[in-house]
Amino acid sequence: SAQSPVRDIAGMLRSFDYAAHSLHPRSPDWAEVCRAAYCSGYAEICGRDPRTDPVLLRAYETDKAVYEVVYEARHRPDWLPVPMSAIHRLSAPG
After folding, report:
1. Residues 58, 66: contact at Cβ < 8 Å?
2. What is the pTM of this model?
């Protein structure tokens, strides 16, 4: 069966948090700006904005962030704050 493209989009959106984490000085808004720009660009090219199904997008992002927590705990404990903050953001109402 074909995998939903929203899963891949969620993976890309997660990458922006990692890129933002390495910025000096830190800029948490940068990742959000990148996520919005990526989704808008995707919508322009593909004709469908992944944000139109926020529940699905949030579910895939959360799934990826949970995977990242396990990975970081095993391999890069210093990076645990990146996926943990994403889980916090993704679990907040709204």
Report:
1. no
2. 0.90
